[in-house]
Amino acid sequence: MNRAVEGRPLRADAARNVDKIITAARTCFREHGPEVPLQTIAVTAGVGPATLFRNFADKEELVLAALNRQLRRLVDPVIDDALAGLDAADGLFRVINAVMGVASEEANLLGAVAGRRGLLTGITGELFESIAVLLGRGQGQGSLRSDISMTDLIRLLAMLIGAVDTMEAGSDAWRRPVALVEDAIRTERPDRPLPPQSPLPGTAFDAILG
């Protein structure tokens, strides 16, 4: 595991290089897709290949660091707010919405680690712990179904993240399936219409739907 993900302190110049590499990786994955070569990322970051490999042994480590940074930046504050809030169910779905926003924006990063559960475990452990707390609180408050387990919720979240593949990257089409999941696990259905339906991209999906 690279030092940036492990949380070990880096010298100021090394920390700047790590930041530049991760920023370049996100740009390159977004522009070129999950198969972008590491050489392209190094050039975009303005560092040599040796600097990149000194911090990240391979593409998987770099992808993990980039995803980890986005979750820490965009999801952790939402988790803290949700855990401090009074309405656990509302907090739970604000966390899920934040995760889905990252998943949509970083669709090509997720594509680069598809099927690598070991990598994803490294960035989701604390997230799942927080979700479990919110689930338990929501069930205690009577706002979430008592027969929903954490295993159910993990699978539902994995299903939602997988659905990003059926959406335009960066879109908010995920809001509708999240609302459907919310309807399914709350004890009372929220008094709001479903978010608008978004079309499925790609000719393959068009053919399936006729």
Structure description:
The protein is mainly alpha-helical. It contains 12 helices and no strands. The protein has helices at residues 3-6, 12-32, 38-45, 49-55, 59-74, 76-84, 88-105, 107-112, 117-141, 150-162, 175-185, 203-209. The mean pLDDT is 88.
Features:
210 residues
Biggest sheet overview: none
Distance between the termini: 46 Å
- Share of helix, binned: 55-70%
Mean pLDDT: 88
Quick structural overview:
By secondary structure, the chain is mainly α.
Tell me the layout of helices and strands:
Blueprint (H helix, E strand, L loop, with lengths): L2 H4 L5 H21 L5 H8 L3 H7 L3 H16 L1 H9 L3 H18 L1 H6 L4 H25 L8 H13 L12 H11 L17 H7 L1
Helix pairs in contact: 2-3, 2-5, 5-9, 6-7, 6-9, 7-9
